Prior knowledge:
Blueprint: E1 10-14, E2 44-46, H1 57-70, E3 81-86, H2 91-104, E4 111-115, E5 118-123, E6 128-134, H3 144-159
Parallel strand pairs: 1-2, 1-3, 3-6
Antiparallel strand pairs: 4-5, 5-6
Amino acid sequence: MGQGEDPADVVIFFDANMPRMAVCKDGYETNRNILCKHRFNFVGLMANRGNLTGLSDWEVVQRFFDLIDANNWSARKPKPLFVIVTKDHNFIDDLKIDYFDERQNGQTACALEFRPDLIIRTEPKPKIKIRRIWIKHRASGDDKDRDLMCAIDLLNKQLATW
């Protein structure tokens, strides 16, 4: 979170297969047609993912951990919920394969635990949990607005139960 921003309830990171949300401008708060962070029923922060083209799922998650660490988001009280949104149904399985390959080859000191829809970094400290939100890919083709509306609806519904 940058200077002057309110602490977020949720820090959201979109995988490369998800479109970007609109950058908020004056007047967007009341315009329901603009798909920006104001469509959430909570205070959300969109983590700047940068260019993820060509990265493995493990490298994508590393990028999110790096952002969490660099911005010291995990030290906030209360700690925000960290969420990665993807249309990749096999995201966690692919992540495990990439991660364990690097771990076996000594290419990472990061220690992860996996649970259904949850990635937990136990080392290095602090412990960080990232919840995976899966946006079911429909056969009707690529529709960025539909994908964003699905993500917004799902995050709003699921956050109410967490």
